[in-house]
Amino acid sequence: MSKNPIGIFDSGIGGLTIAHAIKNKLPNESLIYFGDTKHLPYGEKSEQAIKDYSLKIAEFLKKNNCKAIIIACNSASSTAYYHIKKNINSIPIYNVIDPIVSFISKKYFNKKIGVIGTKATIQSGIYENKILEKNSSLSVASLETPLLAPMIEEGFFNQEISSTIIKNYLNDKKLDKIDILVLACTHYPLIQNEIISFYNKIDVIDSSKIIADYIHEELYKSKILNQANKAKFNFIISNFTESFSKSANVFFKENISLEENDIWK
Fold first, then answer.
1. How does strand 258-260 pair with strand 233-237?
2. 13-63 pLDDT, tens per residue?
3. What separation, in Å, do the N-terminal and C-terminal C-alpha atoms of the chain show?
4. Which of 185, 224, 225, 237 is flagged as catalytic?
């Protein structure tokens, strides 16, 4: 058992959906969350920039005594995961892609999987490659949806403007006849109901609960799961604005206070 906190980071505040699910699943675990609002969105950045930002944040979390780090960002998970593991090998590093791939490959057979996410995530081909490697009976159709994350960050969801943008993406022919849709961005759970209302009878995969279950299992196996501690929560962003502060409460589903810390200064 370890009383040290779990570190979680994202390019903005979308990863708070993961943080909230982990808080519910692992109520005794303290969390340090870092949202890199200074550099969002990562999905539009170069591969090298994403690696540099991600490693800097991971090093910051390690210095703050985190016992494990979760990359709660699909763009960073697809681009910087192995880069971080290579440079930080003293504590476990988890991404948000492998738990979803494992879940899908075990549950579904002979189905068409749709994947929507940022440019960085989709262009990496990581979901398609990993899913087909584990289950060749599946087919995968991936679609870049670059407007969705910044739209959600700015609070435009569950309204006419968001509905129009979502429908425009989901009408793309690449997603014709899909059986399952993977929301390959931690922002997307906030528009999950709008996405579900577009489809009839397909499974829409929300990663947050699956990832929380996975982290619980991994910490238990590693014997660092904290089962008897009063949890503390720190929420840090690299650039503070009032709009992000308000949106953070929506993402985390509870009122939280954000601390600004520009670790690049």
1. parallel
2. 889 999 999 999 999 999 999 999 999 889 889 999 999 999 999 999 999
3. 35
4. 185
Q: Which two tokens stand for residue 172?
A: 């793309």
Q: Which residue has the tokens 């209302």?
A: 197
pLDDT in tens, 231-251: 999 999 999 877 778 888 888
Q: Is the dihedral of CA 201, 169, 177, 113 positive or negative?
A: negative
Ranges of the chain whose pLDDT falls below 70:
1
- Is 66 an active-site residue? no
Q: Is 73 a catalytic residue?
A: yes
Q: Which two tokens stand for residue 51?
A: 């690696």
CATH class for domain 6-95+209-260? alpha beta
The active-site residue out of 40, 73, 182, 215 is: 73
CATH class of 98-207: alpha beta
Domain chopping of the chain, boundaries: 6-95+209-260, 98-207
Phi, psi for 59 (deg, rounded to 5): -65, -40
Give every strand in the sheet of 68-71, ordered side by side.
93-95, 68-71, 6-10, 31-35, 233-237, 258-260
